[in-house]
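We treat protein structure as text, and this decision shapes the records that our systems exchange. This encoding replaces a full spatial description with a residue-level series of whole-number codes. Below, we set out a record of this kind in full and without editing:
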Amino acid sequence: VFEFVEGSIFLMESLLQQAREHCSTVMPGYTHHQHAVATTFGHLLLSFAEALGRDVQRFVHWFALFNKNPLGAAAGYGTTFNLDRQLTSKLLGFDGPTENVTDSITQRWEPEAELAYDVAAMMDHLSTMAQTLILLSTGEFNMIRLNDRHCTGSSIMPQKRNPCSLEVIKAKTSFAHGMLVSLLSIGKGLFMGYNRDTQWTKYWIMDLVDESKPALSVMTDVIRLLQVNKIQMFKQAQEEFAGATSLMEWMVRHGSLPMRKAKMVVEKAVKYSEKEGRGKVSYQSLMKALAEMKVNIPIKEKDVEEMQRPEKILAQTLSIGTPSEKRVKENITSLQKRVKTKRDWLIHKRNGIEKAKA
């Protein structure tokens, strides 16, 4: 658990470092694999760091939940030897002994299954990061470039730079899911006391830890060495009607239009602009849509252009958690504090265990 916490902290710090450098690096946000609205690369990286922060919290909770000493439970009903379970707990670095020896033996699959869930959730987050970075690094997106050390060549095609490190993380995530289901299944039909079924949980959890643990350090290195194509990101943030939503919201605020009608107007304007071969709503198309919908809003051509500029959109996205530069910097500060708190927890717990061993 400590290694997962530490690895997650290192990755979060790497994400925070890159986010500081790219808090104003404009890029398109996506939904359904299509352009949605403008965001920043820094904000994207912080979304990954937030998810990892929850992973750390789960590992910390796991430790608090299961750091109890089962020694003395024997086969599930204790022993006639007069053991001092408080003393053995202190000597071994546990928070204390389990309060019911039958529970700790019957449910000896549960700590492994809980840890497996925590690991699987973490791997899901890493897999999402991997898939995002893979797509952004393709020639079609061309927004980032992975370092050579995280790519491999093809068995036949000499030009290839395959993102194999990230693809392996995705594969290991599937493995983690399988181990989690196996561990949960062990606990479904146990009788009171010791059952040999639960012995197999030890093999599976060790395999899961061994397979999953390197993913954190690999992803940390991927983020640290990432190259960002700011020009391409900004270019694509202005295409595929990424400013249409902001234009619609402007019409609601300044034209006193109901949201439903404003959306219908902009939808029509998008279709007309597409026929013109444009990637953003044109003034002419908007005027045509307004006339067709019998809507009269005093709007100038420069306003139509201005409301679709990604910098303008981000400057007006002011609420907490949004991609504006101010909010991104606040998010960075908040995450830094949370990282420090978890690092302090890790140091405290490790020192306590080492002291107990001494």
